[in-house]
Design goal:
Layout (H helix, E strand, L loop, with lengths): L3 H12 L3 H16 L5 H29 L7 H8 L2
Protein backbone atom coordinates (compact mmCIF):
# COMPACT_ATOMS: atom_id res chain seq x y z
CA UNK A 1 0.00 0.00 0.00
CA UNK A 2 1.43 3.38 -1.00
CA UNK A 3 1.35 6.39 1.30
CA UNK A 4 -0.87 9.41 0.82
CA UNK A 5 2.07 11.66 -0.06
CA UNK A 6 3.22 9.22 -2.76
CA UNK A 7 -0.31 8.97 -4.15
CA UNK A 8 -0.67 12.75 -4.30
CA UNK A 9 2.74 13.04 -5.97
CA UNK A 10 1.79 10.47 -8.63
CA UNK A 11 -1.59 12.09 -9.27
CA UNK A 12 0.04 15.49 -9.49
CA UNK A 13 2.51 14.32 -12.12
CA UNK A 14 -0.11 12.30 -14.00
CA UNK A 15 -2.58 15.19 -14.20
CA UNK A 16 0.06 17.85 -14.78
CA UNK A 17 -1.09 19.87 -11.77
CA UNK A 18 0.75 21.27 -8.78
CA UNK A 19 0.12 19.42 -5.54
CA UNK A 20 -1.59 22.34 -3.74
CA UNK A 21 -3.97 22.81 -6.68
CA UNK A 22 -4.74 19.09 -6.78
CA UNK A 23 -5.39 18.96 -3.02
CA UNK A 24 -7.58 22.07 -3.18
CA UNK A 25 -9.71 20.60 -5.97
CA UNK A 26 -10.06 17.30 -4.12
CA UNK A 27 -11.18 19.07 -0.93
CA UNK A 28 -13.72 21.20 -2.77
CA UNK A 29 -15.16 18.15 -4.54
CA UNK A 30 -15.32 16.23 -1.26
CA UNK A 31 -17.11 19.11 0.45
CA UNK A 32 -19.62 19.35 -2.40
CA UNK A 33 -20.32 15.64 -1.93
CA UNK A 34 -20.90 15.77 1.84
CA UNK A 35 -22.40 19.24 2.33
CA UNK A 36 -26.02 18.05 2.28
CA UNK A 37 -25.28 15.41 4.90
CA UNK A 38 -23.99 17.89 7.48
CA UNK A 39 -26.01 19.64 10.16
CA UNK A 40 -26.31 23.43 10.13
CA UNK A 41 -23.53 24.00 12.69
CA UNK A 42 -21.10 21.76 10.80
CA UNK A 43 -21.89 23.49 7.50
CA UNK A 44 -21.27 26.87 9.12
CA UNK A 45 -17.94 25.73 10.56
CA UNK A 46 -16.90 24.25 7.22
CA UNK A 47 -17.88 27.46 5.44
CA UNK A 48 -15.81 29.54 7.85
CA UNK A 49 -12.81 27.24 7.45
CA UNK A 50 -13.04 27.42 3.66
CA UNK A 51 -13.35 31.21 3.74
CA UNK A 52 -10.26 31.42 5.96
CA UNK A 53 -8.38 29.08 3.64
CA UNK A 54 -9.33 31.08 0.55
CA UNK A 55 -8.43 34.36 2.29
CA UNK A 56 -5.00 32.92 3.07
CA UNK A 57 -4.54 31.80 -0.56
CA UNK A 58 -5.41 35.29 -1.82
CA UNK A 59 -3.03 36.87 0.70
CA UNK A 60 -0.22 34.51 -0.34
CA UNK A 61 -0.77 35.36 -4.00
CA UNK A 62 -0.81 39.09 -3.31
CA UNK A 63 2.36 38.86 -1.23
CA UNK A 64 4.07 36.90 -4.00
CA UNK A 65 2.99 39.55 -6.53
CA UNK A 66 4.48 42.25 -4.30
CA UNK A 67 7.75 40.35 -3.93
CA UNK A 68 7.98 39.77 -7.69
CA UNK A 69 7.14 43.41 -8.51
CA UNK A 70 3.88 42.56 -10.27
CA UNK A 71 1.92 44.80 -7.90
CA UNK A 72 2.61 47.59 -5.46
CA UNK A 73 1.21 49.20 -2.34
CA UNK A 74 -0.08 52.72 -1.90
CA UNK A 75 0.79 54.56 1.32
CA UNK A 76 -2.23 55.22 3.55
CA UNK A 77 -1.53 58.96 3.47
CA UNK A 78 -2.06 59.00 -0.30
CA UNK A 79 -5.33 57.11 0.03
CA UNK A 80 -6.56 59.46 2.77
CA UNK A 81 -5.59 62.49 0.69
CA UNK A 82 -7.39 61.11 -2.38
CA UNK A 83 -10.51 60.45 -0.28
CA UNK A 84 -10.31 63.80 1.45
CA UNK A 85 -9.96 62.27 4.89
Amino acid sequence: MIGLETLIERLSKGLGKEKPELIEEALINYIKTIKNKLDKESRQLLTELLEDYLDAKVAEERLENLKEGRSYTVPAEEVYKELGI
